[in-house]
User: Fold these one by one.
Assistant:
Number 1:
Amino acid sequence: MVQQDYIPIGTMAKLNGTTVVTLRHYDRLGLLKPQYVDEATGYRYYSIQQNARLDMIEYMKELGMSLKEITSILESGDITLIETMLAKKNEQIHSQIRELKLRHDAVERTIASIERYRKSPVTGTIALEYIDRRYIYSKPCYQNFYEGDISSFEKVLIDFRHGLIEDEVPQFHTYNIGTSIKRNDFSAGKLIAKDIFIFADHLLSSLGFEMKVVESGMYACIYTDSYDNEIEYAHRLLEFCHEHNYVMAGDYICEILTEFTVFDDTQRGMFLRLQVPLDFSSKLV
Amino acid sequence: MVQQDYIPIGTMAKLNGTTVVTLRHYDRLGLLKPQYVDEATGYRYYSIQQNARLDMIEYMKELGMSLKEITSILESGDITLIETMLAKKNEQIHSQIRELKLRHDAVERTIASIERYRKSPVTGTIALEYIDRRYIYSKPCYQNFYEGDISSFEKVLIDFRHGLIEDEVPQFHTYNIGTSIKRNDFSAGKLIAKDIFIFADHLLSSLGFEMKVVESGMYACIYTDSYDNEIEYAHRLLEFCHEHNYVMAGDYICEILTEFTVFDDTQRGMFLRLQVPLDFSSKLV
DNA sequence: TAAAACTCTGACCTTGCAACAGAGTTTAAT
DNA sequence: ATTAAACTCTGTTGCAAGGTCAGAGTTTTA
């Protein structure tokens, strides 16, 4: 008759949709001690009432609490503690959802970026393109990386990223990076780095980041798949503009469309779009 | 001069906003081997270009990939693989968000439940209450637990929960449980359990669960904080109805408002609202 | 030249279990 | 009453992504 209610561990596990290992685990943690343990054999026997506690544990797990948290709450036996705990949990869940949404956006951006890479023209192509308004979060370049080699650019990049980390820009890795040269410098053929920036969502500004606008308009663009070519290709772009007597409407921009360092340890695998905005307002005259 | 570019591990960590331990970890995993290792001292030295790879790793981590996944992708060097990976990630993120939302609802339900408990009348109170329409997901009771003790009810409950697990009802722990007695049985004073159910969101039905409606209306209610009292209090409720010549409009319901098994291992700490809907349509005559 | 700061390896810790091994126990069927 | 099947025990190892020591050696700075 005492036996009647004594449930062995396997049965208990099945009844509650959990596993034997889990129950032993809880026993070790002191979270749920079996009501009776046979001293001779060490067999664990549970009572049917202990389902309630297991139930509660299961439930709190569902709410995303750790076993440690659950233990402390169950030991304290304080309802108000549970309430504050739940309120905290709710906060946590909220921020988790926010984070996941940011992550989702990040993934979307990357997918879009890869797709764009696929559909980009081959290296060397020069094209006139209409580009929509963009928002950038920029910092000045204190060093002209056009004078050094790629490691010189790396240094600037590291500085920049450092700044982004300090500013706590979320998911900054997923935003495309760009650099600029002042219009006058560029049109004079002087490659002097001005700013480095990320092309970011406008919503970053709603998070308190001060962003600049890159106006929409027609751009002369040239594509290249290596950072080493930038200088040569930038000159080509400049020649192109001169040949056609195009008037520049703003700063030159080097936009890093994709940057996968998958295949090569030694150098960034980049795909760049070098671009300069054109001024066609004279056509109105 | 060779030294120039060789970055020791601590500096590398700082540059990238990570830790020394992490870098050593990546080294062991083969995810990012330092460019040069001093054979005599074992000191790791990185090149500035390796920031790119670390960058990429950091980035993929941000997308929620495991180091294993990252390793395999970086080793394969296949862009299409990255694309399919990203698509999968997006799916994952979606379902994670869905899950979190369910969890959030669950926490809210529990908070509401505790609050309700706080504001509930004391044991023994009889009240006439208007109760809104409710939706229940129910199963018949194959055993009349009113004939046994609490363990008899536990058995029914276990069966029921088992059914819910099988049906894959999400977060079912957070829905309040109720049981019913047929109107005729109850009004004749015969306590014979009919159904056991959860009071669930209507949205469960949009997930394909067939739910029943408990109509809104005036209810005669009595509160108790112990399961052991149910029978006695149910009779009190019945008497109350007889005294006032109330006509019952439907089945008797025992609603478990809160059920915290925090303080006591041996028995569920319950707070019940026993209720029966009343028919006041005669007043229209 | 000495102290401070850095780095090394190796081992163990975290969470919430899962998957063994090898031995003993209970239950069911014969 | 056996015997086989099913169950349970303890104890160890493993997972992910590192964190946290200890004790020894190395590099940089004062």
Number 2:
Amino acid sequence: MESYQARKVEEKWQKKWLDGDVYKVNLDDSAEKYYNLVMFPYPSGDRLHIGHWYNYGPADSWGRYMKMQGKNVFQPMGYDSFGLPAENYAIKTGVHPSESIETNTAKMTDQMSKIGAMWNWEQSVKTSDPSYYKWTQWVFLELFKNDLAYKKKAPVNWCPSCKTVLANEQVQNGSCERCKSEVTKRDLNQWFFKISDYAEKLLDHDGLDWPAKTVTMQKNWIGRSEGCNIHFPMEEGEDLLSCYTTRPDTIYSVTFIVMAPEHPLVDEFVKGTKYEAEVEKVRKEISKQSIIERTSEGGKNKLGAFLGKYAINPVNGRKLPVYIANFALMYGTGIVMADAHDQRDFEFANKYDIPLEFVISEDGSVIKPEDFKGAYTGDGILFNSGGFNGMNNREALPKIVEFLQNSGNGEATINYKLRDWLISRQRYWGAPIPVVYDPEGNAHPVPEEHLPWVLPTDVDFKPTGESPIANSKELVERTEKIFGKGWRPEVDTMDTFMCSSWYYLRYLSSGDEGKAFDKEVMKKWMPVDMYIGGPEHACMHLLYARFVNMALHDLGHIDFKEPFKKLVHQGMVTKDGAKMSKSKGNVVSPDSFVEKYGSDVFRMYLMFMGPFTAGGDWNDKGITGIARFVDKFWKMVCTENEVKDEKAFITAIHKLIKKMTRDMDNMHYNTVIAAMMEFLNLIPKIGMDEGSKKVLARLMEPIAPHLAEECWEKLGCKGSIFEAGWPEYDEALTVDATVRLGVQINGKVRGDIELAKDASEDEAVAAAKAVENVMKYLVEGEIIKVIYVPGRILGFVIKPN
RNA sequence: GCCCAGAUGGCGGAAUUGGUAGACGCGCCAGACUCAAAAUCUGGUUCCCGCAAGGGAGUGAGGGUUCAAUUCCCUCUCUGGGCACCA
């Protein structure tokens, strides 16, 4: 018998699928909709790597499983084609990105079709197409017009290698998320989105079926903290220093104040005084510190300077010297009350000889900082705290807030770590920010009729740190022609995360150039039912997309708040337990394996390696097991066979459907495949029924689509396998007539017995006593307890004689 | 430092609500076919003792609850991920 010819078969079906309309979607179909979305790739010139396959293969299997259940599945695919990868590739090869994007996406589309996935290419998008970024610009303008976008001069993250600014989310451990270079700070005039306005809404994940870990990561990133602003009057003058604290219970211990070096009041305080020179010097030193030095690692090196001013503690009148300090950030109010109950303050005070006082101790007895090596950060009983003496500090906390509030010296406040989203980029290959400036320098939106506000081509796109399109004559001429002499265009482009924050809506427009998206179609199709992609996007893309979606909702454009109902992250494929990387030289390239075994086998082996969300370890030889299985399956279909044991066969097939259904529901593809293997191993014993071959083919459809179709055809079936759908099982038929169960004596297995599934305890005990090895132990003592769990276990507890 | 996830044979990994640990696959061993090899097929394969029947140990380490623990509780070690001077 001929072995399964994977390549020939797959080529045949891929052609049929591309030419036919089985996989085309009718968005108006009345069947239950299912929006199955995978994070789209950026197009590179390279072949698909194993990560692509691990993402797209199993995701397609999920879509097929939904389609087998009769749902109208929408499974689009497109390209995140603006951005650094495409631009860097263009710089390297000298080919203009707009050209390389065309060739690379065409190549990639071809490869992705060879996975044998049912992508809806008719609804594809490319974020760098003017017909797409026209609407990205429209979204920007909607935010701008509604006060959710603004331009501001601020110290921002700068990547010296990428020569552009980065959003906070793109800085990881002080390094650029993309190129790993160390990020520095620069004062620049940049565009921001007010994502911080949405902090509270973004914290709410109710109704979302997301991994708990991702939700936690977003919550930590947003960083809500409840505290209190306390106002300290200056010794001289009218200024009030407002300090944010989560520990108002330590207010009586405050002995000094620290301010962020960037705080605008610092200049006011030292200008023209004898402290100015020293403060300037220290500030310069701090500004030279990298983010890492100033934050995590620099924790040991406290640095600051006295401003020559004093504030007054409103609760006890103490005179508090005011300092700048490197550890004080522009978070909260940028001013911090400092005391001996905080480790950082404690270290700073020791370095600069500032007095310290405790107000909390374990039992309320008076303790002195001089007797301690570090801060007292624990809880306890208050002392030297006016009317709050003797109280537990945590119980006193709300009362102190109330006291401050009543005396006008403070109020409860909530702070978030989430900062506004910086979207300007000083790079060429991105959507131009659709803003122009009048001769006075005021920003104006480019009216919608002039969208797309196209990216000029008459520039050198190599990054210099200045925006490349600043040198475009065409852009300036265009601006002056439309708006008048002296008007100037914005020359920064948008963060590509902006492009990808709404693409799932654009897919549903079917490329309509007249509007961003179709309200009616969206009403039916959104939110996305299943979103599959890497966990690295937890605090970037997934946060931005939720924000943009919520903003569009609040502006009345769409009627759903959350874009992604269910989210799943695929795991990582490793080689010998290690991350694959070019530098380690342990990268597995899919091509040769796909060439040799076919796409079904390759996809199935990836799914077989481990649970989808956990990933797995690639083994060059392991894939042969799947190849053998596919061949075995094909031969089983081609061989005439008959059932040898009717009862056992029926039970086995119903059990198989049940197990595969349950494991498919949970994306446990590894055990789905194992179940089918087990069934095939059973056939020599129980036989195989001709009619049931069709059932097996249907079960294989999601995980090995080419093979399934070929078998379907071979078995003489007409029409799409999807019309037959996913097989159903009868629960009553999944139960074996007899069960084998272990017999335990004092917790140790001493034998096993075969019983009718509903055997009584007496029958079970009788059967057990017939087992010689069981009896051997039973006679050694007196049975004091029998545990019988039908179908599971029979246990004896005996007391030795 | 804080938070989360995990640790099971030579390897990847299975194990409904606590109920015969090691499914399935790789690898390995033996056999069949072959002049031979590959491919394929059959059997075996957690470790230790034993010809076998069987016994002992065993799911990162140590304790606990239970007739029974990979599963529940406590302590610890290691690995991966995230956050990190956020007052």
